[in-house]
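tool_call: predict_structure(chain=1)
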Amino acid sequence: MDQGILFTESQLKEIRAQFYFIEKDPFQGERLFFDNAGGSFRLKRCVEKFAEIDAIPNCPERVHEMSLYLQKVREQGISDIKRLFNAEGGSVLPTLTASQAMFEMVRSIAENIPGTNMVTTVLEHPSAFDPVEEYARRLGKELRVAKSNPITGGVDTDEILSLIDENTCLLSMMYASNITGAIYDVEEIVKRAREIKPDLYIIIDAVQHVPHGIVDLQRTPVDGINFAPYKFFGCRGSGFAYLSERASALPHHKLIAKDKFVWELGSPTPGHFAVVSEIINYVCWLGEQTTQSTNRRELLVSGMNAIKLHERALMHRMLAGSDEAKGLRELDGVNVYLDYEDLTKRDFIIAMSFDNLNCTQAIQEYEKRGVIVYDRLTTSPYSKRMLESFDLKEVIRVSPLHCHTKEEIDKFLTITKDLSELSVSV
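tool_result:
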């Protein structure tokens, strides 16, 4: 289990058949796409279902038969969002992006909950860090930022807890880093933070982690959590958040005539809710192969476990190698950063570099050889703060997905070895 469990070849064949452009795209032809942290492979059924629903002209807020159907699509999507988080009650906020949802949640809590300080971590994505910094400044609250751990690539539980006191109005943190893949100990943090302040409001950026692991708000009862379908095998153009009962009741932007718990503004696109349900359908289908349960949440958990274990096995192979190819840890001229060996505490993201190529050169050389990865640089606002916390200037981020094969990992390793031997003059 520590090193993961691969899908069988027949399972992988079925899995890969359900996604677009795994092996090639319309422009480049054959290539390895290892930039899923920037936007994952799309499930065919998600794209098809969105087009099918979006083509319907009927307004969902009518009494016609088709309108009633669209209402059911929305209701099923809301149920599946709550099922994804194992949440009960509360409200669902649909937005154009998960970033918008985070800004709305932070604003509502910061403006309405007493307290003199707000706590977050240095590894947060700007969409989560910036609203906390902004509203702390606007409202005259102290901004407290937990430091990163250069060994684990994450943020220590005790480091976060040391910043929380009875005057903290908000703790905002991510579930896992999109630079290092390090998973926070969310359950322990939530439990102990509420021992310090029982009514503390907590929100989580789960955009990176949701496609790779299980979230259970019965075990980690937070007040807000978001995700982005386009990083979870779905379509671009939407983001969703779940808010607890008490967070839902806080003052927020809404139509005056609507119930105080409603966070939707206007009429959300039914197709986006349909996409969420198709994502959950797919994960439940994976779950059916390892459990006899017919409960949708149990199937979801089983499917996510299978995803997690396959990705862990691929990550172990990429780092440690096999009889077919040396792993990144063994390649001369290749640096693997924040390489915490306990893979159970990591999502499948690798931060690396070459001795003989800067990271921008490296991603260009990778692309020439049919591999898509991405560089994270201190010149980018999306990675500057995080990298500087680890005393790094640049890394190459490698982020495969559960539908990749061990042969594709080996191909990447072979190409990486070739790049490590290129002349410095490239």
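agent: The chain has two domains: 9-41+304-418, 47-281. Proceeding to next step.
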